[in-house]
Write the structure tokens for this entry.
Amino acid sequence: MKTKSAVLRGTGQDWEVLELELDPPKEHEVLIRYVAAGLCHSDEHLRTGDMPARLPLVGGHEGAGVIEEVGPGVTRVKKGDHVVCSFIPSCGHCRWCSTGQQNLCDLGATILDGCLLDGTYRFHLDGEDVGGMCMLGTFSQYAVISEHSCVAIDDDLPLDRAVLVGCGVPTGWGSAVYSAGVTAGDTVVIYGIGGIGINAVQGARFAGARNVVAVDPLANKREKAEELGATHSAASAEEAQDLVTQLTRGVGADSAIVTVGVVKEDVVESAFNAIRKGGSVTVTGLGNMTEKTIHLNGSMLTLFQKRIQGTLFGSANPMYDIRKMLDLYRTGDVKLDELVTQTYRLEDINQGYQDLLDGKNIRGVIVHEH
Ligand SMILES: [Zn+2]
Ligand SMILES: [Zn+2]
């Protein structure tokens, strides 16, 4: 069959909306009709070359849609199911899956090659294999994906909102709740209020933090953070440092979470300086894969017993946490409607990313036409 998809053909180029050939699903694969796709910064990291991927590639790793057809042996979902995609597949029985770390599943090894689990491709352009970002390629009307990437959800949930729990919401929420381990009464500093940081704010608030300090140079981001649970906001790291010193009477924050769009040395150092003895810095954002982006004084690390850690998908388990986020959306404890700043047609994807870079969006969402 044919599908309209946004393809990246070379580093530094724009997304091109092209008609691709799509193969039918093989064993343990499904044909999905994507309803919505989120514009996450990670796809922009592919475009700039910060993250090296095999090109050409259909972008998009935040997706929600409806299963149209299943291949042989599929048991996890059936035709007609509504699905939120997990950008890391989970097999359920590797070392990581079987110890509650599905976000580290071994099946995630080839997500930047964009091939399916058997090493072959379902998207083609003039006879050439085209990958799908994170084995998904949600910037496409249709895709063939692994059943291990599918999380079935209730039919009554709006897919153009549920799409956000594929990456941004659990990654941010989990960074606060699981990785940083925020507990009642804590002081937490969150650097960068985009599609991830705003959900670290929501997670920290829900976990009972006393002080949630949102740091962002843009006033619209700070306002949104305060609307969704930040108790304080700061326009710069220096301002945040002063605020934290004052709020904790010189002790420092319990945890700091780095969710800026492009992680560089200075923001990690600011986070390191803002935390107390025994506190933690959680690095959730990405930066250039070939640059060293953490440069800290090891003696301060040792003497103040500080911790610095990375987190992928907020250390959440896709099969559990994607549905959990939606349960919390139903009860009003996690806001999704408020996160969508703008919706776009697939043809307007480059405008969507320009708006992201211009700081206009908390989250932009593509709504597919069929
Ligand atoms: Zn993402
Ligand atoms: Zn696994």
Summary: Residues 318-330 form the longest helix (13 residues). The pocket of zinc ion (ligand 1) is lined by residues 40, 42, 61-62, 167 (CB under 6 Å). The chain has a mean pLDDT of 97.
